[in-house]
Recover the amino acids of this structure.
């Protein structure tokens, strides 16, 4: 299946030499700007938001970025990139000695066909019956079809509330070229966490001799989000603070999956300090409990000062008794 090359660096507006921090900064800025909740044109905002998320998913992962960079700045090596001939599919040969078959998902990521082919994880097959042809022939009776595994990209909102997703699975017989596509609906439960496997009964490879079909297993991958990082059921939000907010304390509004909440920044908050907000993370399985939200302090210093500001900083330097080297030595 031919697809168009995607310039992910152009999508994020960063050079190919961009550092990881620059890529994340560009992603957060663009994602907040085009998030469907704030975009004037919801449909266009959602499409742009997916493009940005797709680019970040690849460029923020060192292994994926390396593979992507091997294609060249304009995709010069695109045609020879591993997997191009198979369209990102995984090939498997059924145990009865029949023809090899390719499997390709649609709708598992919500991203472009280019991403689906090369970076979504594709589909792989395990066998429900012996792969050796002679041994298979000796077995009488119906044989169960093999199981198929693949990835499914889930947004934080979907992981929070659960959702129904329509997927398609394309099977291609490599001998005859015959294609078969069937569409079905998958329920993504609330609390679906990174790496969790969702079983879809009967949506695997077809059985033989009247045997039942195998199952489909989808591995959950959490889509990148501009405001949160995910660790299990806990969420982490990086909060930029001015020096006086960290020293004097403050009340600051931060995002959560339940809407904006107010967080108290205690006096003397240090850089990288984590402030815990209980019960504002993702659901934990079927227990009804939820993980926590950790607000991570990120102290920023002003880089440009006018004359009045400079005078105030100089006065602070002259009057303050704080000695950072001495304090560090005591710690």
């Amino acid at each position: 299946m031919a697809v168009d090359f995607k310039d992910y660096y152009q999508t994020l507006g960063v050079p190919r030499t961009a550092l990881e921090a620059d890529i994340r900064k560009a992603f957060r800025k663009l994602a907040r700007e085009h998030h469907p909740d704030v975009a004037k044109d919801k449909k266009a905002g959602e499409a742009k938001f997916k493009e940005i998320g797709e680019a970040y998913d690849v460029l923020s992962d060192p292994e994926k970025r390396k593979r992507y960079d091997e294609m060249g700045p304009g995709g010069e090596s695109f045609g020879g990139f591993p997997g191009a001939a198979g369209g990102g599919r995984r090939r498997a040969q059924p145990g009865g000695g029949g023809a090899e078959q390719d499997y390709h998902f649609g709708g598992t990521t919500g991203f472009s066909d280019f991403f689906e082919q090369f970076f979504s994880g594709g589909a792989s097959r395990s066998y429900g019956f012996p792969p050796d042809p002679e041994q298979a022939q000796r077995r009488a009776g119906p044989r169960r079809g093999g199981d198929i595994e693949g990835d499914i990209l889930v947004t934080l909102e979907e992981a929070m509330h659960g959702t129904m997703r329509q997927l398609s699975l394309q099977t291609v017989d490599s001998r005859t070229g015959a294609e078969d596509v069937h569409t079905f609906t998958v329920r993504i439960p609330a609390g679906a966490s990174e790496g969790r496997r969702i079983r879809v009964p009967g949506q695997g490879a077809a059985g033989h001799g009247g045997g039942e079909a195998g199952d489909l297993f989808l591995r959950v991958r959490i889509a990148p989000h501009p405001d949160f990082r995910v660790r299990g059921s806990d969420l982490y939000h990086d909060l930029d603070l001015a020096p006086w907010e960290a020293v004097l304390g403050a009340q600051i509004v931060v995002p959560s999956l339940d809407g904006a909440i107010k967080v108290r920044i205690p006096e003397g908050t240090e850089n990288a300090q984590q402030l815990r907000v209980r019960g504002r993370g993702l659901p934990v399985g079927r227990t009804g409990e939820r993980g926590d939200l950790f607000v991570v302090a990120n102290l920023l210093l002003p880089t440009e000062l006018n004359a009045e500001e400079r005078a105030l900083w100089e006065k602070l330097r002259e009057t303050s008794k704080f000695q950072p080297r001495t304090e560090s030595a005591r710690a």
Observations:
- The CA atoms of residues 11 and 52 lie 6 Å apart.
- Confidence is low (pLDDT under 50) at residues 80-99, 127-131.
